[in-house]
């Protein structure tokens, strides 16, 4: 395993252990509302602080872009993109599906990725050009080629309701043509599941870089494709993400295209 990934795994596991300590007592946690339908707990904050502490110990000069504490560090430094708890709504409801997501971006490219599911003890890792692993075993996207056979993942735009109509148009274009759609509530795990062949495709609008950065590299290194809704590479900026096996990704884009509003064409 690449030394950078080793450190990232240490940070992700430490955050995961902290999250697990609270899993059975979420009712004692103070839940704060950041925005409409956007909650944060002290677990998100403490897990993030723990990740940053571990990364900074080895890489004091690296920059940080973290969901709860924002951006810090020089523009030209390698940057850690951190979601300490992806799936907070699941977590606060005791719905057992969430993850820690860490990616290292350098010169505009994601170089390393870690997504850790502490409940299942599943560790997804990838380094550019070196493939994707689940608990140190190589993973590949599925061999599914027809949308009719594909199980898709998605996320609903529960915060950005302005995207709801446009999103529903894409849902209408894909759902009846697929073999099923799942909304599990953690975009980082959705992408990791595409990488592992558990889902054949995924799409969501309005995501943040920390939801997507690690999962996107996992999909690419597992032989899949990730793009924005126009088929381009602006997905970290626009937050509109389509991922899948090469055939399913192409088929999803083709079916969605006629229904895209101006805001979603990128
Ligand atoms: C959210 C999850 C969810 C997705 C949202 C994300 P959070 O992240 O990934 O699946 O639908 O768009 O914001 O807030 O739980 O870290
Ligand atoms: Ca997230
Ligand atoms: Ca989060």
From TrEMBL:
Short name of one Pfam family: Inositol_P
Q: Catalysed reaction(s)?
A: a myo-inositol phosphate + H2O = myo-inositol + phosphate
Biological processes per GO annotation: inositol metabolic process; phosphatidylinositol phosphate biosynthetic process; signal transduction; transcription antitermination
The record's annotation in SUPFAM superfamilies points to:
Carbohydrate phosphatase
Query: What is this enzyme's class at the first EC digit?
Result: hydrolase
Q: Could you state a single Gene Ontology molecular function term?
A: metal ion binding
Chain residues that bind Mg(2+):
67, 83, 85-86, 211
Highest taxon above the source species: Bacteria
Q: Which UniProt keywords apply?
A: Hydrolase, Magnesium, Metal-binding, Transcription, Transcription antitermination, Transcription regulation
Under which EC number(s) is this enzyme classified? 3.1.3.25
What cofactor requirement does the entry state?
Mg(2+)
Membership in a protein family? Belongs to the inositol monophosphatase superfamily.
Entry function: Part of the processive rRNA transcription and antitermination complex (rrnTAC). The complex forms an RNA-chaperone ring around the RNA exit tunnel of RNA polymerase (RNAP). It supports rapid transcription and antitermination of rRNA operons, cotranscriptional rRNA folding, and annealing of distal rRNA regions to allow correct ribosome biogenesis. This subunit may play a central role in organizing the structure.
Protein name from the UniProt record:
Inositol-1-monophosphatase
* Organism of this sequence: Inmirania thermothiophila
Taxonomy, top ranks, is: Bacteria, Pseudomonadati, Pseudomonadota, Gammaproteobacteria, Chromatiales
């Amino acid at each position: 395993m690449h030394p950078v990934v080793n450190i990232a795994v240490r940070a992700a596991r430490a955050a995961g252990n902290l999250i697990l300590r609270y899993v059975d007592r979420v009712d004692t946690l103070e839940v704060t509302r950041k925005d409409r339908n956007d909650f944060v707990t002290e677990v998100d904050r403490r897990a993030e602080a723990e990740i940053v502490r571990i990364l900074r110990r080895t890489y004091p000069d690296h920059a940080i872009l973290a969901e709860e504490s924002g951006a810090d560090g020089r523009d030209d430094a390698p940057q850690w993109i951190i979601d300490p708890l992806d799936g907070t709504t699941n977590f606060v409801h005791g719905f057992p599906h969430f993850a820690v997501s860490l990616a290292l971006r350098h010169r505009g490219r994601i170089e390393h990725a870690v997504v850790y599911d502490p409940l299942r003890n599943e560790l997804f890792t990838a380094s550019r050009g070196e493939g994707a692993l689940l608990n140190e075993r190589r993973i590949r996207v599925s061999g599914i080629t027809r949308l009719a056979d594909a199980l898709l993942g998605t996320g609903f735009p529960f915060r950005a309701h302005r995207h709801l109509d446009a999103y529903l148009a894409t849902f209408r274009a894909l759902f009846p043509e697929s073999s099923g759609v799942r909304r599990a509530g953690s975009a980082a795990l959705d992408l990791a599941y595409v990488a592992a062949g558990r889902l054949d495709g995924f799409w969501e609008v309005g995501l943040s870089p920390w939801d997507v950065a690690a999962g996107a590299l996992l999909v690419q290194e597992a032989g899949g494709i990730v793009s924005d809704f126009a088929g381009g590479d602006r997905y970290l900026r626009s937050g509109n993400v389509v991922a899948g096996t090469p055939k399913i990704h192409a088929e999803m884009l083709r079916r969605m295209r006629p229904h895209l509003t101006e805001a979603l064409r990128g």
